[in-house]
């Protein structure tokens, strides 16, 4: 199943749900192994304060953490208010509330805002998935995401940063998302701002970006998103440059509508890279970091 058929009900769908988080962070180095589902979805195990464990998709393209109603009681979910979420197929109401604690390894966030929403597309891919870990958790930590070793390593100080080399590419933090500058070429060229998205498997370019690039269109695809199915055209970017990294002949999905809230020019999948180090404290990312020689 294509990634948009499973998780854009999370990433593209939940854009704009900025939720403030009042939380003391207990930071300590944590190395957590993950498994890949459907080729690109990072699934890790998280824990509550009472020892309950559940599998979550780690999704840097989602602003607010999502939990399935089936685990709400086990996470001591306290409802707050109904809010509207927007998808490419429309909008719908979901319940927002708070859970006391959620942790991965020794990295913990207290009083975490979450959305209560069923996740049928994800659960069809893997019945053990019970939630989506979003940026309102992840943005509190620095970490390296290593696809080759299938490990996420959260750092307590600078123990990861001090062992790697590579270009520091600035992150613009916007609406609880990580946006990086890039340059793309097709029949035309354009400078783009793309959201780093570990929940995507395809480059997604919104209409303004695809028009600026004058992308040749391929046969449209039907993609399942939250609330229904939408038709989405496909195209191809001949060269995408992010920092010093160059990606050639990249297939792109091209939604016909702009989202209702700002999300840059589209989505850049993190799986395009072997590994990446995210430093939220100083606002940069290193793509394909190299181990520093001693």
Secondary-structure blueprint:
Layout: H1 3-6, E1 25-26, E2 30-33, E3 35-37, E4 41-47, E5 53-58, E6 65-67, E7 78-87, E8 90-104, E9 107-116, H2 120-125, E10 129-133, H3 135-138, E11 143-146, E12 151-154, E13 164-165, E14 169-170, E15 172-174, E16 177-185, E17 189-197, E18 203-205, H4 207-213, E19 221-225, E20 228-242, E21 245-254, E22 266-269, E23 275-279, E24 284-287, E25 290-291
Q: What's the gist of this structure?
A:
The protein is mainly beta.
Provide keyphrases for this structure.
Cathepsin D, subunit A, domain 1, disordered N terminus, 9-stranded mixed β-sheet, 294 residues, 4 helices, single chain, 6-stranded antiparallel β-sheet, 2 domains, mainly beta
Describe the structure.
With 294 residues, the protein is mostly beta strands. It has two domains: 3-164, Cathepsin D, subunit A, domain 1, CATH 2.40.70; 165-291, Beta Barrel (Cathepsin D, subunit A, domain 1), CATH 2.40.70.10. The protein contains four helices and 25 strands. Strands 1, 3, 4, 5, 6, 7, 8, 9 and 10 form a nine-stranded mixed sheet that branches.
Low-confidence parts: 1-28, 224-228
Overall number of structural domains: 2
Reported by name, the CATH topology of the largest domain is Cathepsin D, subunit A, domain 1
Distance between the termini: 44 Å
What is the number of helical segments per DSSP (H or I, 4+ residues)? Answer: 4
Question: What gross morphology would you assign?
Answer: globular
**β-sheet strand percentage:** over 45%
Specify the biggest β-sheet.
9 strands, mixed
CATH level-4 homologous superfamily of the largest domain:
Acid Proteases
Oligomer: single chain
Question: Radius of gyration in whole Å, from Cα?
Answer: 18 Å
Mean pLDDT: 85
* Portion of residues within helices: under 10%
CATH architecture of the largest domain: Beta Barrel
Order of helices and strands: HEEEEEEEEEHEHEEEEEEEEHEEEEEEE
Strands, total number: 25
Helix/strand-derived category reads mainly beta
CATH class of the largest domain: Mainly Beta
């Amino acid at each position: 199943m294509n990634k948009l058929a499973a998780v854009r009900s999370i990433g593209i769908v939940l854009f704009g749900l900025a939720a403030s988080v009042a939380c003391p962070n207990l930071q300590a180095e944590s190395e957590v192994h993950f498994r890949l589902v459907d080729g690109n979805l990072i699934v890790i195990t998280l824990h509550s304060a009472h020892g309950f464990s559940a599998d979550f998709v780690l999704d840097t393209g989602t602003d607010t953490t999502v939990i399935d109603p089936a685990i709400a009681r086990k996470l001591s979910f306290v409802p707050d208010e109904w809010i509207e979420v927007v998808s490419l197929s429309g909008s719908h109401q979901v319940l927002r509330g708070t859970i006391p604690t959620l942790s991965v390894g020794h990295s913990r966030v207290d009083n975490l805002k979450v959305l209560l929403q069923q996740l049928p597309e994800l659960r069809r891919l893997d019945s053990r998935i019970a939630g989506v870990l979003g940026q309102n958790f992840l943005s509190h930590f620095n970490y390296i995401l290593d696809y080759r070793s299938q490990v996420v390593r959260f750092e307590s100080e600078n123990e990861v940063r001090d062992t790697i080399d590579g270009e520091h590419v600035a992150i613009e933090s916007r609406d609880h998302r990580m946006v990086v500058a890039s340059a793309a070429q097709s029949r035309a060229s354009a400078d783009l701002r793309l959201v780093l998205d570990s929940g995507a498997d395809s480059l997604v370019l919104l209409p303004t970006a695809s028009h600026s690039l004058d992308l040749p269109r391929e046969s449209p695809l039907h993609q399942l998103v939250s609330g229904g199915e939408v038709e989405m055209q496909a195209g191809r970017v001949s060269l995408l440059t992010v920092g010093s990294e160059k990606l050639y002949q990249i297939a792109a999905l091209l939604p016909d509508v702009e989202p209702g809230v700002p999300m840059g020019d589209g989505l850049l999948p993190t799986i395009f890279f072997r590994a990446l180090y995210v430093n939220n404290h100083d606002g940069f990312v290193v793509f394909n970091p190299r181990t520093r020689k001693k």
